[in-house]
């Protein structure tokens, strides 16, 4: 599966810890990330991550483009709901495209915990029918 990993600044530590905890599962998938999130994951885990631009510089939009091309199967987005983001329109657009194309999206660690277990259990097989 092609998985996008995105975390706002105050959630990056959570993302790094999540990817360390589930490296065993994630290493079997193709990972993508926005710039700074991807750099942290690459530096702090053994995972290979394809990095897009940083979020404020268009990274969310690049991931949205992959979704529109049916080139992304899951988005794990650790959002910070307490800090205003300069690129909020890009974030909304990304989430909208997930809804347009029925791409599973979670926006917090709790959702990601469920999603990663579902991935490991084979619940994403339906994506191969797309
Ligand atoms: O801003 C982001 C998502 O909206 C994340 O971007 P970075 O991973 O580059 O910090």
From TrEMBL:
SUPFAM superfamilies: Methylglyoxal synthase-like. The keyword Lyase applies. Keywords: Lyase. CDD domains: MGS. Pfam families: MGS. Residues 1-130 form the MGS-like domain. The active site is at 60 (proton donor/acceptor). It is an enzyme of class 4 (lyase). It catalyses: dihydroxyacetone phosphate = methylglyoxal + phosphate. It comes from the Bacteria. Substrate binds at residues 8, 12, 34-37, 54-55, 87. One of its GO terms (molecular function) is methylglyoxal synthase activity. GO terms for cellular component: cytosol. Its EC number is 4.2.3.3. GO terms for biological process: methylglyoxal biosynthetic process. InterPro entries: Methylgl_synth, Methylglyoxal_synth_AS, MGS-like_dom, MGS-like_dom_sf. Catalyzes the formation of methylglyoxal from dihydroxyacetone phosphate. HAMAP family: Methylglyoxal_synth. Belongs to the methylglyoxal synthase family. PANTHER family: METHYLGLYOXAL SYNTHASE. NCBIfam families: MGSA (TIGR00160), PRK05234.1 (NF003559). This is Methylglyoxal synthase. The gene is mgsA.
């Amino acid at each position: 599966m092609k998985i996008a990993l995105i975390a706002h600044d105050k959630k990056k530590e959570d993302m790094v810890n999540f990817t360390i905890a589930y490296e065993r599962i994630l290493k079997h998938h193709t990972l993508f990330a926005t710039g700074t999130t991807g750099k942290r994951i690459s530096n702090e885990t053994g995972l290979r991550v394809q990095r897009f631009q940083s979020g404020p510089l268009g990274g969310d939009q690049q991931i949205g483009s992959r979704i529109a091309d049916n080139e992304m199967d899951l988005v794990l987005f650790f959002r910070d709901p307490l800090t205003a983001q300069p690129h909020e329109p890009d974030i909304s657009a990304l989430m909208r495209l997930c809804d347009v194309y029925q791409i599973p999206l979670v926006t917090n660690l709790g959702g990601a915990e469920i999603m990663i277990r579902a991935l490991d259990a084979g619940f994403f097989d339906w994506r191969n029918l797309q």
